[in-house]
């Protein structure tokens, strides 16, 4: 049975605050962009069109009159083009500016003229038009959501709580932007050093005109021109040999044994790429920082609409999920975002913290983190809350909610990511979606139902690796053998370090998948893993569950026994079979909670299982020795 929502003290509920009811929430959720306007399609269209245009459009050949050099304005345009797909996803308004700049540059480059005769030249303006239409559609529906939220909130407006006024955004983004700007500046400085070094040497060199005698490649596979000039043959590297056909005339500069083409004076591409990447990252972080700070300041400008809602912290990613005020079962989320708690500065300065309290809190927090990572932490409770601000896609909000640990206290939290509607994503094939679907289709069976299907028995009960689990083990064994061969085949190298890192995990996984075993007898469980057989008394067990691809037996807060991997539950379900490891965990849970079902006898040694990790280590060592002998 679900727990009732944690109440919010009445003194923290603004007078006249309206409940966000399910009908209003459904209208709000209905105002979401159509699937064609999802940013993914626009990003893919832009990327494909840009790659197609760059690969197909002819490049002007380098000549002595127009030599290759660093085109900083062109690199600046490339920064905008690189950032535009990112902004389409994160900053749609900035993306409109980026698209406008891209189209201007496209026009200056003659792209619109080419588009009448070449499909590749038409692709980018078409992709830009599609992207603009999608952004306008998304912004229009965000405005519709804003209007619906204001309608649901009514005329009541309240200032932010004092704690939220001290919340600051953007500092981390600004720090990263400064770091990336320093990287870009270093790349720019190095590129200029290369250019200045050439200019200084070329000023004192001899300028000659020569004939291209042949094209060659050096030992590294780089293209080289053989140029005959002044009764000498010079070998000069080039990045575009097709621009200098055999018997053509080229201008060169010569200083002793050094020679360079006037058309290709220097190569600073690596430094230019570093400057461009650093500039793009710096601009992206700076824009994020400005956006976050602007949104946070907008919240603090004056009274805001308020809505009474229910909130819950996401069990998997820590995000905040908002539900309608009349949805105590949390059946239909409305929106979600990530948030951080905010405190009043005076309280922070005046708060006295005992060192023992800090130690205790740290232990609790670490225990909670460990439980979450192991999948054993129960879902956080639903809490009553008041939402401050107008919620719409991309908005910034704050909320005050009840404290699950103290009914008289409240927590003030501010969003650190934009509001997103809780609607199905474009692609829902990720691990999170599979997990949610699996839970809906295969909810945890009640203990009473499991116990009803199990008859008491005197002999010990045994669960062991089945066909699917052994298939996983054999597959990992092949990976292990192939990995040892691949790492050792090239002789001693730093890649052998991967064996030290990955081999222990592989050996454990293979041994567990092939021969895991759990035996239940009168006094407890014998759990056979990769390396040993562990005895777990019934009285020490606190929970048994199947998580991901393993079975976990927990004893208290700080101890557990885990077997992983134990098969492919998703494949067994696809084949219409009940996952064996899941059923094993369910039956163990029933035995734990129903002592009358436990076996009456003690398991003999022969039925307790034998770990195969040590023999597998020996086999792996022999296989590695054989590979080295065969080299």
Protein model, in words:
The chain has 631 residues and is α+β, with helices and mostly antiparallel strands. It folds into four domains: 10-17 and 302-421, no CATH class; 30-155; 188-268, OB fold (Dihydrolipoamide Acetyltransferase, E2P), CATH 2.40.50; 447-630, no CATH class. It is built from 18 helices and 22 strands. The chain has helices at residues 22-30, 39-56, 72-90, 92-108, 111-115, 119-153, 162-165, 171-203, 269-299, 345-350, 355-373, 431-441, 447-452, 467-489, 496-515, 569-574, 580-593, 613-630; strands at residues 18-19, 157-158, 206-217, 223-229, 232-237, 249-255, 258-261, 304-313, 320-323, 333-337, 339-341, 383-388, 398-403, 406-415, 420-421, 461-464, 517-520, 524-528, 533-537, 543-547, 550-555, 559-563. Strands 1, 2, 8, 9, 10, 11, 12, 13, 14 and 15 form a ten-stranded mixed beta sheet that branches. A five-stranded antiparallel beta sheet has the order 5-4-3-6-7. A four-stranded antiparallel beta sheet has the order 16-17-18-19, with no helix packed on it. Strand 17 and strand 18 (524-528) form a beta hairpin. Helix 1 (22-30) runs antiparallel to helix 6 (119-153), helix 4 (92-108) runs antiparallel to helix 6 and helix 14 runs parallel beside helix 18 (613-630). The longest helix is centred in the N-terminal third of the chain and has 35 residues, at 119-153. It is flat. It starts with 17 loop residues before the first strand and ends with a helix. The relative contact order is 0.10. Mean pLDDT is 81; it is low at 346-370, 372-376 and 427-442.
């Amino acid at each position: 049975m679900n727990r009732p929502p944690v109440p919010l003290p009445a003194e923290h509920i603004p007078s006249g605050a309206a409940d966000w009811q399910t009908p209003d929430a459904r209208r709000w959720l209905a105002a979401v962009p159509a699937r064609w306007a999802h940013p993914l399609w626009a990003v893919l269209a832009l990327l494909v069109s840009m790659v197609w245009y760059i690969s197909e459009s002819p490049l002007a050949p380098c000549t002595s009159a127009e030599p290759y050099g660093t085109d900083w304005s062109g690199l600046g345009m490339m920064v905008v083009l690189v950032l535009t797909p990112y902004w389409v996803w994160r900053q749609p308004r900035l993306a409109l500016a980026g698209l406008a700049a891209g189209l201007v540059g496209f026009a200056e480059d003659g792209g619109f003229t080419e588009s009448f005769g070449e499909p590749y030249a038409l692709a980018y303006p078409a992709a830009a038009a599609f992207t603009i239409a999608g952004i306008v559609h998304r912004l229009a529906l965000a405005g519709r959501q804003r209007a619906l939220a204001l309608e649901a909130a009514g005329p009541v407006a309240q200032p932010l709580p004092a704690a939220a006024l001290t919340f600051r955004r953007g500092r981390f983004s600004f720090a990263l932007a400064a770091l990336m700007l320093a990287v870009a500046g270093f790349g720019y400085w190095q590129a200029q050093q290369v250019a200045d070094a050439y200019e200084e040497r070329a000023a004192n060199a001899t300028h000659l005109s020569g004939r291209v005698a042949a094209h060659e490649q050096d030992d590294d596979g780089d293209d080289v021109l053989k140029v005959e000039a002044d009764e000498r043959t010079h070998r000069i590297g080039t990045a575009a040999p097709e621009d200098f056909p055999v018997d053509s005339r080229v201008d060169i500069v010569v200083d002793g044994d050094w020679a360079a083409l006037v058309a290709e004076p220097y190569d600073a591409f690596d430094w230019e790429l570093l400057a461009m990447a650093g500039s793009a990252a710096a601009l992206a972080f700076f824009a994020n920082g400005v956006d976050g700070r602007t949104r946070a300041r907008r919240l603090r400008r004056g009274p805001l609409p308020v809505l009474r809602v229910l909130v819950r912290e996401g069990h998997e990613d820590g995000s905040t999920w908002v539900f309608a005020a009349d949805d105590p079962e949390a059946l239909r989320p409305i929106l979600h975002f990530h948030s951080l708690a905010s405190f009043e500065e005076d309280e922070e300065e005046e708060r006295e913290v005992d060192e023992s309290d800090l130690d205790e809190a740290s232990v609790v927090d670490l225990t909670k983190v460990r439980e979450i990572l192991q999948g054993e932490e129960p879902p956080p409770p639903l809490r009553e809350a008041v939402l401050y601000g107008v919620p719409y896609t991309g908005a910034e909000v704050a909320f005050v909610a009840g404290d699950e640990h103290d009914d008289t206290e409240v927590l003030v939290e501010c969003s650190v990511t934009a509001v997103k509607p809780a609607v199905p994503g474009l692609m829902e094939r990720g691990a999170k979606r599979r997990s949610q679907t699996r839970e809906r289709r295969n909810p945890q069976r009640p203990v009473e139902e499991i116990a009803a299907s199990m008859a008491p028995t005197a002999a010990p009960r045994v669960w062991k690796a089945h066909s699917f689990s052994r298939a996983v083990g054999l597959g990992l064994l092949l990976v292990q053998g192939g990995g040892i061969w691949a790492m050792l085949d090239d002789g001693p190298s730093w890649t052998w370090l991967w064996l030290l890192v990955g081999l222990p995990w592989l050996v454990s996984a293979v041994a567990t998948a092939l021969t895991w075993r759990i035996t239940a007898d009168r006094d407890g469980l014998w759990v056979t893993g990769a390396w040993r057989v562990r005895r777990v008394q019934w009285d020490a067990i606190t929970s048994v569950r199947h998580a991901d691809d393993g079975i976990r037996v927990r004893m208290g807060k700080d101890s557990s026994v885990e077997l992983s991997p134990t098969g492919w539950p998703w494949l067994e379900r696809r084949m219409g079979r009940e996952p064996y490891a899941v059923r094993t965990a369910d039956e163990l849970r029933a035995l734990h909670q129903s002592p009358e079902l436990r076996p009456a006898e003690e398991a003999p040694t022969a039925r307790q299982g034998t770990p195969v990790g040590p023999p597998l280590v020996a086999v792996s060592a022999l296989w590695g020795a054989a590979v080295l002998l065969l080299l």
